[in-house]
Specification:
The complex is a heterodimer of chains A (about 300) and B (about 500).
Chain A (H helix, E strand, L loop, with lengths): L1 H23 L1 H4 L2 H26 L7 H17 L4 H25 L4 H20 L14 H4 L1 E2 L2 E2 H19 L1 H11 L1 H6 L4 H27 L10 H13 L9 H20 L4 H25 L1
Antiparallel strand pairs in A: 1-2
Chain B lengths: L3 E12 L2 E12 L3 E5 L6 H8 L7 E6 L2 E3 L4 H7 L1 E4 L11 H6 L6 E2 L2 E2 L1 H15 L14 H14 L4 E5 L7 H16 L3 E5 L3 H7 L2 E6 L2 E7 L5 H9 L19 E10 L2 E9 L2 E7 L5 H8 L5 E8 L2 E2 L5 H7 L1 E4 L3 H5 L6 H6 L7 E3 L4 E2 L1 H15 L15 H10 L8 E5 L7 H15 L3 E6 L2 H7 L2 E6 L2 E7 L5 H9 L4
Parallel strand pairs in B: 3-10, 3-11, 6-9, 9-10, 15-22, 15-23, 18-21, 21-22
Antiparallel strand pairs in B: 1-2, 1-4, 4-5, 7-8, 11-12, 13-14, 13-16, 16-17, 19-20, 23-24
Classes of the chains: A mainly alpha (about 300), B alpha/beta (about 500).
């Protein structure tokens, strides 16, 4: 019994949440419509959380990830308003974010600065740029309608953002579980020194990890702008804590406590179901925040207790 | 006859599935130094942890100074006057000795402030009593490992210890520091304090201990007076084998003696003007005191440190020394000194550790960068069989293996590719006698196809295993001896050459 609780505690937690909401709001909660709503709501969080998972695997943080999202949304909107084709603009913005991530990686891996403080600073820098180019205001007039298809329309009856989420999840699941690159990332996260002694190029792998994280952050920002039809210089801000919270929740799924894609997705689902159910119950926002915070702490305490026992 | 301080009767301890201690009796007198020996898993640390109140005994009784006692938690052990000093001495690095020694005790106070004078006075008195001489006011991080041990011992005396338990105290000490520690221990013994001494280094036991208790598989094999023992006999007790050649004979002397590695006037931080050749089919030892520059030299050859001048030739061709990745490609493998921090990813299982440096050979598809996981399992299982790594499964995390098996995993990482030169840095530190012999056999086998450098601080290991030995002191090679010239005094003299 205790073993099952240890192993599947997080999943059991998710099931309990689902059962409680099903009992309290049977008519509204357990419907196909509500669930497709939930999945669509969480798809953007899932994409940015996958990004956070990448740097967490190598044992680092990227606190600039939400700034990259805001920056990408604003820059995309500005360029689209100036009539550049979105097929040029989106790759360009993603490329720029990739380069930004490389800079983070360079500072962390080559110059040996703590990732926490590096990305806090580079994120603040990027936020400054975002406010500068946007003039600090929301950009909404002049964004072409064709750009809105990414966030607002469906393919085979399923919203495109959900397709993108699943594609991103599959790609990174594949990288982490099937490829040499993924194995290297886990090795670096597990023991950087031993990895170096094993002939792994630490700097190169860290650079790429940070670049991928920033790119996924930027992708989230672009999709958010498309979904809302507008870009705000702090639009991505709310994702920072949430994305890392989901990674931490997901880490509890495995004995060794490594970040992993299925875990992150379950973490995202827990956050999404909570927000949805509490809204259905008309629970005020501030109380939702309090409850979300408590649940994350509970999960981490639970994992900490497990580790101490073993 | 001295008074008995500790008596243990029929002590047993079971963990799920294992009987770690089985009916062990043990008695210790005042002022006695008792060595506790046995292979890994023999029950030494279980016994100590029960005394320390970390584990609870399953059955049996403990008497301290003739009175039956229950030790349920570390505080109980402290109350009795049992002091435990572990391998990695736990001190706060930026506190000085005085502050460290007082840590955990009620600081004397002057109204609101600490009474520093009183703290210092008490420590000085203690140091004086024990005749310890080192800087009490320097941050601990700036002191040597030997001094840290002295601080830990002083700390034990703060609580008026009656019995000291020392766990592998010499693991990181130089020969000179070991001498000092031993004379200090002997003085402590004169004061009527008893000592339980745990060490893998048998030579030391004959120097310091009065009596020896040998454990094997959780049972006591024997209590012996040191005068009645010799090393062969002790090893026999520990391993249970009738006879054991500690250093297996190397079958070599194949014709191929080409030079694999040549260092020409190599200099860098920690080593200077190194000139030496390593041949195929040869085990070249590197002996020296801790800090002689051996590890620095090896790490430089492996691309982990900068080389300031000189040349490295591999198979008679000059090579550029860059990163470990490049050196591995060129055919140099380093089995590092510290398995747990440098050799293994502890959270990875056996299979993942073995294949980590070789994944390039396991790609199913280059384009998709995909690992062939079936092949990975097959090859890892082959290695586990070949090296006789004891584990229920290759999916077991290496964290849970014994030291000897961990070392075998580290070695097997490098057996999958063609390697010209193997560098072993202290390959048998902290592993038990039986596993050591297996490691030596493995090194012998490896030397049949490659050149081998063996760095070791164990002079008997150097003399037992190597074909030639280079001795380093203060960053320079002070002598190179052939096997016929091996002589303990000669090697030690070379190792101390130029040391003040």
């Amino acid at each position: 019994m205790q073993n099952i609780l240890k192993k599947y505690g997080t999943i059991i937690g998710l099931l309990i949440i689902i059962i409680v909401f099903s009992i309290l709001r049977p008519a509204a909660f357990l419907t196909v419509r509500n669930w497709s709503n939930i999945i669509e709501q969480i798809s953007l969080l899932a994409i940015i959380a996958i990004g956070a998972t990448v740097v967490m695997v190598i044992g680092e943080f990227d606190l600039s990830i939400a700034n990259a999202a805001s920056f990408a949304g604003i820059l995309t909107a500005i360029l689209l308003v100036r009539d550049y084709s979105m097929f040029l603009v989106i790759p360009f913005v993603l490329f720029l974010s990739f380069a930004f991530g490389l800079i983070n990686g360079f500072l962390v891996a080559k110059l040996n600065i703590l990732s926490f403080i590096t990305t806090l600073s580079s994120g603040t820098f990027l936020e400054g740029i975002t406010f500068w180019i946007s003039g600090g205001t929301i950009i909404f007039s002049g964004i072409p309608d064709e750009f809105l298809i990414w966030g607002q329309s469906s393919f085979l009856k399923i919203p495109i953002v959900i397709w993108i989420m699943f594609l991103a999840a599959f790609i990174f699941w594949y990288i982490f579980n099937q490829t040499m690159f993924g194995r290297y990332l886990y090795a670096i996260g597990g023991n950087e020194t031993a990895s170096r002694y094993s002939g792994i190029k630490i700097e190169k792998n860290k650079l790429i990890s940070f670049a991928l994280t920033s790119t996924l952050g930027a992708l989230t920002g672009i999709l958010l702008a498309s979904k809302l039809g507008s870009a705000h210089p702090t639009a991505g801000g709310g994702y920072l804590l949430q994305s890392y919270a989901t990674v931490f929740l997901g880490m509890t799924l495995f004995k060794q406590g490594e970040p992993n894609i299925p875990g992150t997705l379950i973490g995202v689902l827990i956050m999404g179901v909570l927000a949805n159910g509490l809204t259905l119950l008309n629970v005020p926002n501030y109380f939702q925040d309090m409850l979300t915070g408590s649940i994350i702490i509970a999960a981490l305490v639970f994992q900490g207790l497990n580790e101490r026992k073993s | 006859m001295a008074e008995e301080i500790l008596k243990i009767k029929a002590l047993s301890k079971s963990f799920p599935g294992v009987k770690a201690l089985d009916n062990v009796d043990f008695a210790l007198e005042e002022g006695e130094i008792r060595a506790l020996v046995g292979e890994n898993g023999a029950g030494k640390s279980t016994l100590i942890k029960i005394l320390a109140g970390i584990h609870k005994k399953s059955s049996g009784s403990i008497y301290f100074k003739g009175k039956k006692v229950e030790i349920n938690e570390p505080a109980d052990a402290k109350e009795l006057g049992l002091a435990f000093i572990h391998q990695d001495v736990n001190l706060v690095p930026y506190f000085n000795a005085v502050e460290n020694i007082w840590l955990g005790y009620q600081y004397p106070k002057n109204n609101l402030f600490f009474n520093k004078k009183k703290m210092e006075k008490k420590v000085l008195e203690l140091a004086d009593k024990l005749n310890f001489k080192f800087d009490l006011f320097k941050a601990v991080s700036e002191l040597s490992t030997a001094d840290k041990w002295l601080i830990a011992i002083l700390k034990a005396f703060m609580m008026d210890a009656k019995l000291l338990v020392l766990d592998e105290p010499t693991a990181a000490l130089t020969e000179k520091e070991i001498r000092e520690l031993f004379s200090n221990l002997k003085r402590i013994k004169q004061m009527g304090i008893s000592i339980i001494y745990i060490s893998h280094r048998l030579e030391e036991i004959f120097e310091i201990a009065d009596t020896v208790t040998i454990l094997k598989n959780g049972q006591k094999v024997s209590d012996e007076n040191i005068e009645d023992l010799n090393k062969e006999l002790l090893i026999k007790f520990m391993t249970g084998k009738k006879s054991l050649s500690r250093f297996p004979k190397k079958e070599n002397n194949s014709a191929d003696k080409n030079t694999v590695l040549e260092l020409k006037n190599l200099s860098g931080a920690g080593f200077k003007n190194i000139n030496i050749e390593v041949n195929k089919n040869e085990i070249l030892g590197f002996f020296g005191l801790v800090g002689a520059g051996r590890t620095e030299l090896m790490e430089a050859i492996f691309g982990l440190r900068n080389i300031s001048s000189g040349k490295v030739l591999l198979n008679n061709r000059e090579i550029k020394v860059e990163s470990p990745a490049k050196m591995i490609d060129q055919g140099i493998s380093l089995i590092p000194e510290d398995r747990r921090t440098e050799g293994l990813v502890l959270s990875f299982n056996i299979k993942e550790n073995i294949t980590l440096p070789n994944l390039i050979y396991f790609l199913k598809s280059k384009f998709f960068n995909q690992i062939d996981q079936k092949k990975e399992i097959e090859e890892a299982e082959k290695q586990v069989d070949l090296l006789d790594i004891k584990t229920p499964s290759i999916k077991k995390e290496v964290e849970y293996l014994s030291g000897g098996n961990q070392q075998k995993v580290v070695i097997s990482k490098w057996l999958y590719r063609n390697t010209e030169l193997f560098i072993f840095d202290e390959p048998t530190v902290g592993i038990d006698v039986g596993a050591r012999t297996e490691v030596y056999e493995l090194i012998n086998k490896i030397a049949q196809a490659s050149g081998v450098i063996l760095v070791s601080s164990d002079i008997l290991e150097i003399m037992g295993v190597c074909d030639r030995a280079a001795v380093m002191s203060s960053g320079r090679i002070t002598g190179i001896l052939d096997r016929e010239e091996f002589d303990q005094d000669k090697i030690l003299q070379l190792a101390y050459k130029g040391v003040n």
